[in-house]
Predict the structure.
Amino acid sequence: MDAMSPVSDLERANRATVDGLYKALAKGNTRKAAKVVGNDLEWWFHGPQNCHHMMRVLTGESSYNEFTFEPRSISVIDDRVIVEGWEGAKVYWVHVWTVNKGTITQFREYFNTWLTITELRPLSWLNSSTVWQSQPRDLFKRSLPALMLAM
């Protein structure tokens, strides 16, 4: 969504759901976090195999303190909430959450990967437009793999 588009009540609620998840995890409140994550969460990951940090937290394999996610930006596009964070020049991550009626139903975790989200319109790739793009402040000189997520 561009800066000039109005934010709907649904988008505000979706942002609050995801923001509340990060705050609950930071406080160690796993019960509150579990209330917003669906039982059949669809999950997808891209990055080094040892960096499934958020999924290990969500499944209880590790604590939130093992790797602390500090969101640097949160953007909302319809039912998707995009959270971006970085720690210096070595760690960059993007989380894309899909929220349906206050429940997180899908989670995509990208670790040390540039991400571009494109909206595809029917009939042609020529009609696609970028709706969100990675903006890591400390990694601009670093070479990272790039992916495109089509919506």
